[in-house]
Predict the 3D structure of the following.
Amino acid sequence: MRTNHITPKKQLVTPWSLDNNQAYLDWKTHKLERYTQALRGEPVRLNHLAKPSESERLELSKRCKKTNLAIYETTAELHNPEKIHADLRDFADSFGLQIAERHRSAGENGIVALRVSDAQKQRGYIPYSRNAMNWHSDGYYNAPDDQIRAMVLHCAQPAGDGGANQFLDPEIAYIRLRDMNPDYIAALMHPEAMTIPANHESDGSVRPASVGPVFSVDEDGNLAMRYTARTRSISWRQDKPTHQAVAALTNVLNSDDPLMLTARLKAGQGILCNNVLHNRTGFDPDTTQNSDRLVFRIRFHNRSEEH
C-alpha cells in the first residue's frame, strides 16, 4: 500500500520538507505572487460546457495551477439538468480527469446530484439538507491511498436564499500553519493524525475506518489534504502537538483569511478545483417551501493540471 506521507518516490525537490526551509521560502514567495489577482479574476467564460476551447481549457488549468481552483460559467443548457449531467462528463474528459465517485448517491457517470432529499440513502446527511456544512475537503473519510484529488461543483439551480460557499487552497492553509509553528505541520503529517471511524450504511455495507495524515505529499510532489471540522465521528491523535495543530487550523479557517474565496454560484457557474477546503452556508430556511437548489458534484482520483 502506498503511504503518501513519506518523501515522494520520484525524489522530487519539494517545499514540503521541514528540513529544507529555503526551498519552502522560495516556493512561498512564488506562490503568493499575484495570488489575489488570479483568485479573484472574472469567471472563465465557456461557450460550450462539454467542449471547452483550447484557450478556455488552458485558462482554467492555469488558474488551478496557481490557486488550485477556478470558477467558470456558461449559459448553455441552463434549464436542462439531463444535458448538463452529460456535458459535465465530457467536461471532465477534456481535462483528463479520472472519475472516482463510488458514492452511495452517485448516478450515471459517477455524478452526484446535491439537493434537499429525504431518500433513504441520503436521509440524515448534511449535503442533502438545507443545513450549513462546516469546513472539509471532499472524501476526507477515504483511505490515504484512495484520496480525492480534484472536484467539480456545478450549479444547475441556486437556492432562493443562502447556499454560499467559502473556499481555501490547502497550500494557503499549509503556509499559515507552517509560518505559525512548523511543529503544527509535523503533527498533521503524522500517518495517524486523523481517524474517521467505520460507518455502517443502511444497506448493511460497512465503510472501513480511515486512518491517515491531514497533509500528505503525492508521488508527483503535490500537497494533498484530508480534513473535516466535524467534532463527532472523528478521532485525533492523542498528543499535545496534534491538539495544538488542530486548534490552530480551526482558527485559520474561522479567520476570514484574505485569501479565502466566497462565492454564491449562479445557474451555469461551477468550480473546478484540486479538492480545496470548502464550506457552505445554510439555505432556503423556510421549510414550508420546497428548495429547488441543485448542484452537481464529480470527484476525481487525479489533479487538474496544465497539459
Q: What stands out?
A: The CA atoms of residues 35 and 67 lie 7 Å apart.
